[in-house]
């Protein structure tokens, strides 16, 4: 660990935010140069390298751009900033922890994980309504509560009290968050919807009854002793409000001033809405124009539903990438952090990177970080999600008799051709690429449980028996966050005017619902995440007592013994398992990095998480395909050998493999009993020097299977002593 201090830096070949810098742009022109300067590597790291999910959101600030189209009265959403439109006409929606859609997905993943339920039993609808106006309003109420509490504390303190100044900073931050939406009509719509609903339905004890006119009153005893509720005198009620709610009144003024000063084109209606939302006063306005309010409510609701629908469809591919990155980092769930995984995001599409003009830039970057004896920036793994998977056998429909799925333009996936071009480059720098197929119903656990793995093997055929095959790792199946058939969100019901006031319609056609159409996470993110996590000795130590702090987890074989039941993913189970037929087929073919959602126990405890079933690359072996750890150990040993032999000097190679107790081979053999030992029982290392061709052939033996490694010898000037 003192020579190679990390074996888990991972490169994500994906575009997150086209407005931010990307690897190709930063590397720039590389004509006539073999390596980038240290300053350039430092710049790449400062722009593109992230060590946590929060840092990823911070550096790349994933964004959706929107503008209003007056021609069709709709909101248009785009993942790229639209050109040719005035800056002030474009709204930027940050997709971060505060975004209601992303927040809902995080909650869903965490709840599913804690309950350990399969998709068929999990009640998705209980969490999906988090993006309805009602739930958005609940979040605002919580923010409001915190602002009122903080403001109350702030007012009690003396002006120059340092504590008051600290609270002022916190209040400023809270107001900043609240005010971010003043100019965003879309963000104000849920408030307007709930505000009208609250005022119109104030008289109904529950939403199913008609609302009646409301007049705030007071309880009195009449002259003959009878109980009476009479209308409260206006003057008195206001005085009471001022006495008891002086801080609320002050806050109302603060919000009013804040709105007027920030908003570009103030609206009296929105100003009142902001004040009512963030600082409601106990004075109730009774003069409601019922017809207008009901009409406004229904218009807002329809508009919100359509806009939310369009937003979800646009943002979904971006959200799936964000979830992927979160799942990559989530796999490293340890109390004591050690060799934490890091992610270098190229922030450009794969087909752009593998264009003939750009390949030299990628090669120069990888040559700089992977071909030196300084390993702090070495890239060990790569992630390529969303590789296209065409499936044959769909009937072409000439006439639509029934309403079917709308034909929507498919999101651009990565092609097999782009992937093979990438593999051609990265093999020379020994980067192992985890790739997964495009997300959807075709690539889920459910689908694999019925259809098996043959379509994946067929699709990977062009990558088999190639020089780079051992560096290509197909990851299956993808993870389902929300299944397509359970992805309906009820927004609310339309409102109707009645004789006594207003009520929510009970008619089925008046219930407004949108469909998310399923949300998925590419298996490559989780596969790379778990492999990057178990490189860290601290991670292994939490599940395996016999872990050495001296070695990374390069030789850890997750398929061996109970290893996969100890080093589990953080993903909740999805199905009850694969049939024996499917499992026999997987075991016979030994193909790919396969996840399993099986019933399993370890020391009497149920395993309620998804585990790794196979961890194979596309390198063909006697029993199917080779384990990924063999390539990783081979890369690790070659890098240690290069470092310790000063670039493969003849006499140093002999010393490296000698029986001398201080040789590297002897030291590895002496420490064989650990889960992460470089050489296990049954393993061995031998070498043969080919003097004629200046080559050293190294045989790495894993449980009787031989893997060959070949290095070019640097001749020394002094005679060799054996």
UniProtKB/TrEMBL annotation:
<protein>
    <submittedName>
        <fullName>Transcriptional regulator</fullName>
    </submittedName>
</protein>
């Amino acid at each position: 660990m003192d020579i190679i201090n990390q074996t888990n830096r991972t490169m994500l070949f994906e575009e997150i935010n086209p407005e931010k810098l990307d690897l190709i742009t930063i590397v720039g022109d590389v004509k006539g140069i073999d390596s980038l300067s240290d300053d350039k590597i430092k710049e790449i790291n400062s722009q593109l390298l992230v060590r946590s999910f929060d840092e990823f959101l911070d550096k790349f600030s994933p964004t959706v751009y929107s503008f209003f189209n007056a021609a069709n009265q709709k909101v248009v959403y785009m993942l790229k900033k639209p050109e040719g439109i005035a800056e002030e006409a474009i709204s930027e929606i940050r997709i971060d922890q505060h975004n209601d859609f992303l927040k809902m997905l995080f909650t869903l993943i965490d709840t599913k994980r804690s309950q350990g339920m399969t998709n068929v039993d999990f009640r998705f609808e209980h969490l999906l309504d988090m993006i309805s106006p009602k739930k958005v309003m609940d979040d605002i109420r919580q923010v409001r509560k915190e602002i009122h509490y903080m403001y109350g504390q702030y007012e009690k303190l003396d002006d120059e009290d340092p504590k008051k100044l600290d609270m002022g900073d916190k209040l400023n931050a809270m107001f900043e968050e609240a005010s971010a939406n003043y100019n965003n009509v879309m963000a104000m719509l849920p408030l307007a919807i709930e505000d009208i609903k609250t005022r119109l339905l104030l008289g109904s004890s529950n939403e199913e009854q008609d609302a009646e006119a409301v007049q705030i009153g007071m309880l009195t005893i009449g002259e003959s002793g009878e109980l009476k509720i009479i209308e409260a005198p206006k003057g008195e009620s206001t005085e009471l409000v001022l006495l008891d709610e002086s801080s609320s009144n002050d806050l109302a003024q603060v919000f009013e001033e804040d709105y007027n000063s920030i908003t570009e084109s103030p609206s009296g209606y929105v100003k009142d809405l902001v004040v009512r939302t963030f600082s409601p006063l106990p004075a109730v306005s009774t003069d409601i124009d019922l017809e207008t309010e009901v009409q406004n409510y229904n218009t807002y609701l329809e508009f919100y539903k359509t806009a939310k629908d369009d937003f979800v469809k646009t943002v979904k591919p971006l959200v799936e990438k964000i979830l992927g990155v979160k799942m990559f980092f989530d796999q490293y769930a340890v109390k004591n952090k050690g060799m934490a995984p890091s992610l270098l995001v190229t922030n450009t599409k794969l087909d752009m990177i593998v264009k003939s003009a750009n390949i030299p830039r990628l090669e120069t970057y990888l040559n700089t970080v992977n071909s030196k004896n300084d390993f702090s920036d070495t890239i060990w793994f790569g992630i390529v999600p969303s590789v296209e998977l065409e499936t044959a056998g769909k009937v072409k429909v000439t006439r639509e008799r029934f309403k079917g799925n709308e034909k929507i333009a498919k999101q651009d996936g990565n092609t097999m051709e782009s992937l093979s071009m990438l593999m051609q480059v990265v093999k020379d720098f020994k980067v192992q690429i985890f790739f997964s197929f495009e997300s959807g119903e075709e690539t889920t656990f459910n689908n694999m449980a019925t259809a098996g793995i043959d379509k994946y093997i067929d699709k990977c055929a062009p990558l088999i028996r190639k020089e780079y095959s051992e560096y290509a790792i197909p990851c299956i199946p993808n993870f389902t966050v929300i299944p397509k058939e359970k992805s309906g969100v009820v927004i609310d019901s339309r409102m109707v005017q009645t004789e006594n006031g207003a009520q929510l319609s009970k008619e089925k056609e008046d219930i407004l619902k949108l469909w998310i159409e399923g949300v998925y996470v590419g298996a490559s993110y989780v596969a790379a995440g778990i492999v990057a996590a178990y490189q860290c000795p601290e991670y292994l130590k939490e599940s395996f007592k016999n872990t050495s702090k001296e070695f990374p987890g390069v030789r850890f074989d997750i398929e061996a013994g109970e290893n996969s039941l100890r080093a589990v993913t953080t993903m909740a189970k999805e199905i009850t398992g694969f049939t024996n037929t499917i499992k026999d087929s997987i075991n016979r073919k030994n193909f790919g990095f396969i996840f399993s959602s099986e019933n399993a126990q370890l020391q009497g405890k149920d395993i309620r998480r998804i585990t790794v079933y196979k961890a194979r690359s596309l390198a063909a072996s006697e029993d199917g395909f080779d384990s990924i750890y063999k390539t990783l150990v081979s890369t690790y040993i070659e890098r240690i050998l290069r470092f310790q032999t000063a670039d493969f000097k003849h006499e140093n190679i002999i010393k490296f493999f000698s029986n001398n107790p201080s040789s590297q081979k002897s030291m590895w053999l002496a420490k064989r009993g650990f889960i992460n030992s470089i050489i296990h029982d049954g393993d061995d290392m031998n070498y043969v020097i080919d003097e004629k061709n200046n080559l050293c052939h190294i045989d790495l033996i894993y449980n009787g299977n031989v893997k060959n490694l070949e290095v070019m010898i640097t001749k020394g000037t002094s005679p060799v002593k054996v």
